[in-house]
Structures are given as structure tokens and as C-alpha cells.
Design goal:
flat, about 100 residues, 4 helices
Length: about 100
């Protein structure tokens, strides 16, 4: 656990406080992005029905049919994307 503290020591020694501000902003945006992507499949369809009423039915039916036809490709894309992310994060640590 102590080896991770060494990452932030050079940043703490800088005399520029905006470096911490940039780090905090980047971290905050990343967290908000993950939350938005995670919640979108649960929030967007009810929100569309609430705002558009019966007009949303056609778009949601088309989206459901698309996801049904392409479910394997969607799942494979998510798995490969996650694998690429994990490789990108872990390879610099291992090498």
C-alpha cells in the first residue's frame, strides 16, 4: 500500500495548487462519466416514456429489436473493451 503513496508525493511537492485542482477535476469527471454510463440503461427508457408518452414506444421497440439481434456483438464488445482496459492498466505495472 505504501508504494502507491509515492505517486502523489511529487505532485504534493509542486508549488502550483492548480495541479491538485486539475487532478480533482479529472477524477470528478471520470466518476460522473462512470455513473452516467451505468445509470443510462435504467433511467433513459422510463424518462423517454415519461416525456414522450406513446411516441416513445416505436423508438424503444426498435432499440429492443436491435439489442435482441445484436446481443452477442454487444456482449463481445463490452468484454473486449474491458479486457483492453485491464491490459492497459496492468501491463505497465507488470512490465
Amino acid at each position: 500500500m505504501g508504494e502507491h503513496f509515492g505517486i502523489f508525493v511529487p505532485l504534493a511537492r509542486q508549488s502550483k495548487p492548480e495541479a491538485w485542482l486539475k487532478l480533482a477535476c479529472a477524477l470528478g469527471l471520470a466518476v460522473l462519466g462512470v455513473i452516467a454510463i451505468t445509470l443510462a440503461p435504467a433511467v433513459v427508457p422510463p424518462l423517454a416514456v415519461t416525456l414522450l408518452g406513446d411516441r416513445a414506444r416505436g423508438a424503444l421497440d426498435a432499440l429492443s429489436a436491435f439489442c435482441g439481434r445484436h446481443s452477442r456483438a454487444i456482449n463481445a464488445s463490452v468484454c473486449f473493451g474491458f479486457a483492453i482496459f485491464l491490459a492497459g492498466v496492468s501491463l505497465p505495472v507488470v512490465l
